[in-house]
Design a protein that fits this description.
With 293 residues, the protein is mainly β. It folds into two domains: 129 residues, Immunoglobulin-like (Sandwich); 104 residues, Immunoglobulin-like (Sandwich). Helix content is 11%, strand content 40%. The chain has three helices and 17 strands. The strands form three sheets. It has an eight-stranded mixed sheet. A five-stranded antiparallel sheet has the order 4-3-7-8-15, with no helix packed on it. It has a four-stranded antiparallel sheet with strand order 13-10-9-17, with no helix packed on it. A hairpin with a 7-residue loop joins strand 9 and strand 10. The protein starts with 14 loop residues before the first helix and ends with a strand. The relative contact order is 0.19. The N terminus is likely disordered. InterPro entries: DUF4249. This is DUF4249 domain-containing protein.
């Protein structure tokens, strides 16, 4: 559905006495390391998953849209036995640290990142978590908001029995609908683990969808800590340019500065299993259409 954003203007009576301090904080904030280190492994495609990227930038003042890329860091990712998972080197063309030999992670294993830059050491860790393949996509019409019906796409997936699942869903509709993917996260606290009743629908409803539109759907199995982080990030990012545009300064990730704890980093290190599929929207129909996977 289209989202409408209402802006509330707040008058600050004491502006005259605080203007200089506030502007100084905004314009001259100390640059901090920003870490975009999502190691995402395609459950059904080991070969392409060997290529992984990590992006490092520096935060800037509030009014700047220029985020300087960090090019002089040394990055290592290891398993719990301190064995390297792959070699990362800076690629000036892509402006990311690139590994083309990343090893396949093991479910339930904890992995560690170490970033050394400008005399400081940053560390983080995350646990590699499973995801199941989808069961089917069911397309129907929702008449709650429009009597003519809005195309409704339900993505059905199993909740694993005996596993605490946390999910991150990413849907990329055609650029005609939106230029940005839509993200949603969930955990399985309210989902049954009883065999035969342990599947549920993730629903996508968009009034501008048309027959023939291509939806790109990615489902990640994420750790509880990453899920908690995404809860805060998605709430903060509503109405902005997306959850991964820039990390809000008030939201702390899991990256610690081992050298100077006051000079903390922004961003997150995660390692996630995912599934990917593409779905072509069918013609509008009062009858539900089910596509098995």
């Amino acid at each position: 559905m289209k989202k409408y954003i209402y802006t509330i203007l707040i008058a600050i009576i004491s502006w005259s006495c605080t203007e200089e301090i506030v502007l100084d904080d905004i314009l001259n904030s100390t640059p901090r390391l920003v870490v975009e280190a999502n190691i995402d492994w395609n459950k059904n495609d080991d070969e392409t998953s060997k290529t992984q990227t990590i992006k490092l930038t520096k935060s800037t003042s509030y009014y700047s849209q220029d985020y300087p890329v960090v090019t002089n860091a040394t990055i290592t990712v290891t398993n719990s036995s301190d064995q390297s998972m792959g070699t990362f080197a800076y690629d000036p063309t892509l402006e990311v640290y690139l590994s083309t030999d990343f090893n396949k992670p093991v479910l339930g294993e904890t992995y560690f990142i170490k970033i050394e830059v400008d005399g400081e050491v940053y560390t983080a860790n995350d646990t590699y978590t499973s995801i199941v393949d989808p069961n089917y996509i069911r397309q129907g019409l929702n008449t709650d908001f429009d009597p003519d019906g809005i195309i409704n796409v339900d993505y059905n997936i199993d909740n694993e029995i005996g596993v605490d699942n946390y999910y991150l869903f990413k849907i990329e509709p055609p650029t005609r609908v939106t230029l940005l993917p839509e993200y949603s996260n969930a955990d399985d606290k309210l989902i049954s683990e009883e065999p035969g009743k342990n599947n549920y629908d993730f629903t996508y409803l968009e009034e501008e969808l048309e027959p023939g539109d291509l939806l790109k759907i990615t489902t990640y199995g994420i750790s509880q800590r990453y899920n908690d982080y995404m809860n805060k990030l998605l709430l903060t990012a509503e109405g902005s340019s997306g959850p991964f545009s820039t990390t809000p300064a008030t939201i702390r990730g899991n990256v610690l500065n081992e050298t100077d704890e006051e000079n903390r980093a922004f961003g997150y290190f995660s390692i996630n299993q995912f599934t990917y599929l593409e779905y072509t929207v069918k013609a509008k129909s009062e009858e539900e259409v089910v596509t098995e996977y």
